[in-house]
Amino acid sequence: MKRIMSTILIVSMLALSACGGETEENASPQNEQTKEETPNENENSEMNHSDMEHSGSGEVPSDLKAAESPTYEVGSKTIIKTGHMAGMEGAEATIAGAYDTIAYAVSYTPTDGGEKVENHKWVIHEEIPEAGEQPLEPGAQVTLNADHMKGMDGAAAEIDFAEETTVYMIDFTPTTGGDKVTNHKWVTESELSPIE
User: Fold this and answer.
1) Averages of pLDDT over each 10 residues, the chain, 196 residues
2) Exposure of 117 in the CB half-sphere (CA atoms within 13 A)
3) Which of 4, 159, 180, 191 could form a disulfide with 187 if both were Cys (CB 3.0 to 4.6 A apart)?
4) Are 149 and 56 in contact (CB under 8 A)?
5) 71, 100 contact by CB (below 8 A)
């Protein structure tokens, strides 16, 4: 009788440990799959911004005029309210330059053969060689003299809309981590907010 009870006890223990092991094994691939999916999702969200030149030289067109009394002075800190690229929205920025101009949202086909870029924000009046003195109207066909993204310089573009404003060149560290971005061009005044 003791042997039968011992055998039943051993078999029960083995069955229970097998069930426990099976549960862990079943849970483990799901966890691994979740871990695998997460980087891919992040990668895809950043893919649209892969051609963005995150940092710039700080050089500006020679005819671009510094703003006389900008809302955000050079050297002051602000919060970015827009997401031109991953990690930008919500980041703290330092103003590297402030200029009064006309900012344009443009659609263009990159010169390097990439897909058409729709509603890119922003290219400024001084970065369009044939702009002239007056603001360009939506639908105007222009050539870009800016290198914010690969294939942008020299590309044929269409003006989507214009905004007369102060544009800012900014330095910031992305909220997603990574290297500090310096001399990023451009954000408009409405895309920044004061630090409270």
Assistant:
1) 47 44 38 32 34 69 95 98 92 98 97 93 96 95 93 97 97 94 95 94
2) 29
3) 191
4) no
5) no
* CA quadruple 117, 122, 127, 132: dihedral, nearest 10: 100
Q: List, in sequence order, every residue forming a beta bridge with 120; answer none if it has no partner.
A: 106
Tracing tokens 């006890």 back to the chain, one arrives at 9
The count of C-alpha atoms lying within 13 angstroms of the C-alpha of 103, restricted to the half-sphere facing its C-beta, is: 21
The pLDDT assigned to 179 comes to: 92
* b/e map 102-113, b = 16+ CB within 10 Å: bbbbbebebeee
pLDDT computed for residue 58 by the predictor: 81
Contacts of residue 182, defined as CB under 8 A and 6 or more positions apart, other chains included, come to: 55, 56, 58, 96, 171
User: How would you label 32-70 residue by residue, b for 16+ Cβ within 10 Å and e otherwise?
Assistant: eeeeeeeeeeeeeeeeeeebbbbebeeebeeeeeebeeb
Cβ distance 153 to 110 under 8 Å? no
> Distance between CA 163 and CA 182 in Å, rounded?
24
CA proximity to 135, closest of 167, 168, 158, 101: 101
pLDDT at 114: 87
- Please state the pTM of the whole predicted model: 0.72
How many residues does this entry show for the chain? 196
